[in-house]
Write the structure tokens for this entry.
Amino acid sequence: MDRPVRVGLLGYGRAGQAVARVLDTTEDIDLRWIAKRCTPTEVERLSAPAPLHAVGKAGFDDLFEREAVDVLVDFSSPRALRAYGRDAARRRIGIVSAISNYSAEHRALAARLAATTAVMVSPNMTFGINFLLVASQMLQHLAPYADIEIIEEHFRDKPETSGTAMRIAGTLNLDSTKVNSIRVGGIVGHHEVVFGFPYQTVRLTHESISREAFGTGAVYAIRQLQGRPPGLYRYDDLIRESMREALSPAEPPAARRKCS
């Protein structure tokens, strides 16, 4: 695609605002508009790097008609998928969803939409977390005998166990008792997978410094979806694909010379 990718952003809370700042300053991304479920009066009070639209129960077809986009990035709420999903799929608009708590019903809807357009659903949109997930699986495969514990640290008032930590545990087939939570101060987000060997320890760590990390993660997802056929994609699968391409040699290695 020669022109920048036209993007619509849904959701303008704290995470959505950080994502908007990143999308707005990325050269190959054209942030066309931002949609927020609110009243027109509330929209007038907000400042944004792109035109801000109030959306309600009417759906998104009119907005898609007036302001065409190639990809919709969703940082809003699970219920939004029903509002925009069919209109987006019908127009072949790619969907990048960062919703972390989809129900089984919403996951089924995403799968149906994926029959028509490219859909990527990721409960954590940061590139680093998804890389950590893939790297942890690789290390577990290489050393299945290692002890594994997961540490997650967040700000003092976060009540629940990190959904990302639970996803890491599930991916590694670990019980939830292997997830250790720490709540102190204003930590944005820290996840660590500790591999214990008899004579060494390996720690895979990801630290979120600011919510802009969601924006750079969304940019990676947008770029990866370009040109792909309809289907349901996962962030970590896209990283695995990129890693295979990076690690596969262009030519087969030369045969090892035998000692005479």
Observations:
- The chain has a mean pLDDT of 91.
- DSSP finds nine helices and eleven strands in the chain.
